[in-house]
Amino acid sequence: MAYFAVIGLGRFGTTTSLELMHLGNEVLGIDIDPKAAEPLAERLSQTIIADATDERALKELNLGNCDGIVVAIGEDLQASLLCTLNLLNLGIRCLWVKAGDSAHHSILSKLGVRNIVHPEEEMGIRVAQSLNYPMVNSY
Ligand code: ATP
Questions:
Q1: Is 33 in the pocket of ligand 1 (CB under 6 A)?
Q2: Which of 15, 76, 83 to mutate to test the pocket of ligand 1 (most atoms within 8 A of CB)?
Q3: Half-sphere CA count of 94, side-chain side, radius 13 A
Q4: How far apart, in whole angstroms, are the C-alpha atoms of residue 26 and residue 20?
Q5: Which of 7, 9, 15, 31 to mutate for ligand 1's pocket (most ligand atoms within 8 Å of CB)?
Q6: Where is the RCK N-terminal domain (predicted)?
Q7: Per-residue pLDDT averaged across 6-16, rounded?
Q8: Is 54 touching ligand 1 by the criterion CB < 6 Å?
Q9: What is the pLDDT of residue 138?
């Protein structure tokens, strides 16, 4: 069993955190908005309402113990970058960050983030491949 944190509990962050739970892991969910965090309170190991752009708040969460952290803030470029920078400053390296567009991707890449996720584009490719190779069901 591993321990993960998911920051930003929109559709992508919620799905990722619930699947990590389903796979038998412990998951800490973090969101600035109580309306996003509260529905998951009983479904994740722990949920916390916090602003991930606040380095001190992140430091208090001892995220250094995590086996991996997902930053699932896609729309708010500034919040995503500040949160990512805070995590890098805390020495966290196993990061997966959702990018909203190519500018977002470029900056994350310059910051040294190796795992940058584009859910819509990646799903579009998988759907196209499933249509092109209908006999392959593993997608
Ligand atoms: P979706 O996965 O639903 O498509 P999205 O890519 O549109 O999401 P946002 O809606 O911008 O991304 O953010 C996802 C979640 O991140 C929201 O629940 C939002 O409240 C949360 N969030 C935004 N800013 C912060 C922050 N500074 N700290 C913590 N959580 C935040």
A1: yes
A2: 76
A3: 12
A4: 8
A5: 31
A6: 1-117
A7: 98
A8: no
A9: 57
